[in-house]
């Protein structure tokens, strides 16, 4: 692979992204923005931070938020440099907001969504999400992103990540070309090919962002802490299909290495 250094990200950070499937950026956006966004999310839910008697559900979902604080949080100089470094300059769409938001509350109840999966990008107009698809080119998605709008510790329902699992998924997708596989097909064996991967938790202070390879296997989990966890999990959208005539981005390099293809 050619020199992987890039303004804002070191060669080591980019190589770790290629190998591990994710990059943790601390201080990617300002804590003041995080607080503004939390205030808007509380209002959107019709709940309040000082009235825990209203926190009756383990998870409340908000589809998207497009007000200025959310746009600002998604478009800091640090993040733009990282998008360029991992996806390629001019190859991604500037976020016009953030979503979705699975806001998790302390609860002994099963949230009902804590299973290993890969986020799908194709056929998402199908009412059956198990029929949504993903292909080896990651058409429709440049990155999976996790934006922390509150401090998230080990007990605060941090997303579980299987380190390096993106490589296993790339190899599974390769024989299926542009058509790809459905979530139902990928999940048929419970993502057994990734069971031996090291597991890490997406913890961090408010303002932390995890930039993840689109094929990374991850999972929600119940909230065992005491304060609600605020996070967005949006895609970074590509401007178009990956262009084989252009130098491969680190996202593409990770796929090619996993599949044993020439870089």
Any idea what the radius of gyration is? 18 Å
Proportion in helices: 25-40%
Name the overall outline: globular
Instruction: Please state the oligomeric state of the protein chains shown.
Output: single chain
For the record, the CATH architecture stands as Sandwich
What is the total number of structural domains? 1
Distance between the termini: 6 Å
Could you list the spans in which at least 5 consecutive residues all have pLDDT below 50? none
- Largest sheet, if any? 5 strands, antiparallel
Number of helices: 7
CATH superfamily, by name, is q2cbj1_9rhob like domain
Which structural class best describes the helix and strand composition?
alpha+beta
Listing every helix as H and every strand as E from the N terminus to the C terminus, the arrangement reads: HEHEHHEEEEHEHEEEEEH
- Strand coverage percent: 5-15%
Short description:
With 263 residues, the chain is α+β, with helices and mostly antiparallel strands. Helix content is 25%, strand content 14%. The protein has helices spanning 11-20, 31-45, 68-74, 77-87, 165-173, 183-186, 250-259; strands at 22-25, 59-62, 101-104, 133-134, 143-148, 160-162, 181-182, 199-201, 209-212, 218-219, 231-232, 235-236.
């Amino acid at each position: 692979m050619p020199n992987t250094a890039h303004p804002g990200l070191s060669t080591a950070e980019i190589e770790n992204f290629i190998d591990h499937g994710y990059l943790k950026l601390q201080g990617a956006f300002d804590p003041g923005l995080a607080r503004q966004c939390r205030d808007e999310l509380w209002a959107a839910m019709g709940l309040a931070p000082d009235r825990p008697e209203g926190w009756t559900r383990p998870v409340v979902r908000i589809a998207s938020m497009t007000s200025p604080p959310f746009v600002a949080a998604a478009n800091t100089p640090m993040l733009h440099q990282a998008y360029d470094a991992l996806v390629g300059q001019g190859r991604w769409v500037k976020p016009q907001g953030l979503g979705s938001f699975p806001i998790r509350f302390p609860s002994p109840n099963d949230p009902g969504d804590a299973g290993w999966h890969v986020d799908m990008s194709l056929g998402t107009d199908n009412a059956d999400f198990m029929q949504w698809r993903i292909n080896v080119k990651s058409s429709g998605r440049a990155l999976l992103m996790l934006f922390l709008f509150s401090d998230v510790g080990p007990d605060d329902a941090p997303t579980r990540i299987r380190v390096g699992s993106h490589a296993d998924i790339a190899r599974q997708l390769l024989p299926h070309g542009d058509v790809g596989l459905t979530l139902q097909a990928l999940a048929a064996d419970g993502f057994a090919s990734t069971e031996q991967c090291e597991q890490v938790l997406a913890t961090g202070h408010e303002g932390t962002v995890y930039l993840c390879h689109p094929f990374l296997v991850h999972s929600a989990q119940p909230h065992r802490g005491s304060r609600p966890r605020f996070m967005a999990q949006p895609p970074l959208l590509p401007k178009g299909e990956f262009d084989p005539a252009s130098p491969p981005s680190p996202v593409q390099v990770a796929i090619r290495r996993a599949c044993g293809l020439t870089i």
